[in-house]
User: Fold this.
Amino acid sequence: MAFIKKAPQFVIPIYQRTYSWTEKECRQLWSDVRRAGQSEHIPVHFLGSVVYIEESLSTNTSRSPQLVIDGQQRLTSVMLLLTALSRVVRDGEPVDGFSPKKIHNRYLMDPDEDDERAFKLLLSKTDRTTLNAIVAGDDLPDPTSIRVKENFSLFLRLLEQDPDAVVEICAGLNKLMIVDVALSREHDNPQLIFESMNSTGKELSQADLIRNFVLMGLEPKLQTRLYEQYWRKMEEGFGQGAYVSHFDGFMRHYLTIVMGSIPRQGDVYTAYKTYSQEQIAKGREVESLVKEVWELSRHYGALVLGQEQDTALAHAFKDLREMKVDVAYPFLMEVYRDYDEGLITAGDFLEIVRLIEAYVFRRAICAVPTNSLNKTFANFGRELKKDRYLESVKAHLLNMRSYRRFPRDEEFIARLQDRDLYNFRNRSYWLRKFENHGRKERVSVDDYTIEHILPQNDRLSKEWREALGDDWSAVQEKWLHTLGNLTLTGYNSEYSDRPFAEKRDMEGGFKESPLRVNQGLGQVETWNEAEIKKRADRMARQAADVWAAPDLPKDILDTYREPGAASSGYSIEDHPYLNNAKVRELFEDFRREVKALDACVSEQFLKLYVAYKAETNFVDVVPQAKSLRLSLNIDPQELSDPRKMVADVTDVGRWGNGNSEIRLSDPDDLQYVVGLVRQSLERQLGGEDIEDA
Assistant:
């Protein structure tokens, strides 16, 4: 505590993160301080370190403020605890040095100073005005720092609830020891020290590290201007809660856009450092980089945080959020930037958003693997022709094949009818979309519950068993949770397990329902397998319009299709070892198995090897006198190879792509080897960055 008492003033620089300790950390501080105060065997309690920059290292008794670069969370929490203590103590001095006046004048404010210079601790941003008001006993400002306010209230409540705690907390605070580390701006690099510290406080987010990296080393005037003009606006745009929960994710999307590759979640800071250093080396100004982040953050706010002003776009963005289409945000942020710059109209932008929504939903219904979507959307913008924006988006969606395909109507309609949609993660989404498609006045699905027309009860009544027939149990099991048997109602409890005729004709029954999803149910006589399938087919065909596929005339679409792979000029006849009957038979079996792995696999004969590709080579075959030498484009450590057939050929010169090599000579090993090849293909289809051939 002596360190706090002697210091003239602590100032948290603008580049530091906001106060972020939660109730969990504050309760831990309370527990530690109280335990130290209760025990005579604890001479001191080590709170941690405070690292600060001062103009001179001679003494901390000069009147210049100390800029804190680590320790603000602990300092702020102790200040809140001291302020709460000064309120509760009121009169008297429970422990020497802890009267309200002494707490206030020694630790919270300097009675010889005025205005902000009087406060011992000056936080940044909204935190500052809130803490100052609490310490001074003034009304809280608007906006209020949520964390500062809530944690002060916590300490105040804990002290008021337990009168015995007052003396123990005072005694514990008397034992606090802080290690102060002073840095010189001239001789130390605060940023490197900041990065290397293993603080015991709340872990810094990737965004915290980025902000500090960008602003910490700048001259104070430039630092302040960039913060006020861009970074603070960005933080205010997110809001206190969303800044903590969303900013790291936003920075990852931002880097995906500007770098063209997706950084790992824990590597966002490192990726940004690399990107910014490369840009500055090319002559780019720091202000340009900060402005770029700010501009894209506004588009992210519209898409993800519900800040869009255009009503139609706002509804579309809400649907995307409900679908949890995070992987599409890098592409849509790019499109939003182009929309903001006037390259496309609001109508075209809306249609693009709806196409992306339909693409993701159709793939989910058709159970198309999602592990390639990150890479699909990361590179989507590079495939577009900006002078024919909407047309090129449609063309690209239509031209994607295999694991990246946009499921066509036939596949979507068929799969939608037999898919378990009750346990589908987006069931409220798809029912709301069905009900509101084409409506000007939207129906709030939240006012209704999902109804199984054929009940879930496995002990069906006699009426239901007779309606379903002898195989009633099998019918119920197959169709219970599917499209044809699900609807919306406000009378779920009234319907219960009643026979269909009662659900249809009762007050509020299907005949009287105003909902579109219930259209036609009032005219059905008996609810059985045939009626379920009939309704499912009708609704699935409607769904093809709700989640519409892109459509372009064939002649226009053909202009976007890449010509077939140019012939290499080589064929199987150019590989003499394949004239050997045994090797040829092994090769034919191998190529048949590999080409059957996925429809996207293509084969190309080259001079010295045969390449098999999805996006690029995943296995190359070099025919030899008695075997096939295979090069897999995957590192050996990534393969599951219990038989140890793979050799590590990293940095070994040879024909073929990849660091894993296998020799195939025995037909009995074929299926095992194809399993290894499948792993190489799946890695590529999973969206990882693959070295080009």
In short: Residues 240-259 form the longest helix (20 residues). Residues 55-62, 197-201, 687-693 have pLDDT under 50 and may be disordered. The two ends are 64 Å apart (CA to CA). The CA atoms of residues 455 and 497 lie 6 Å apart.
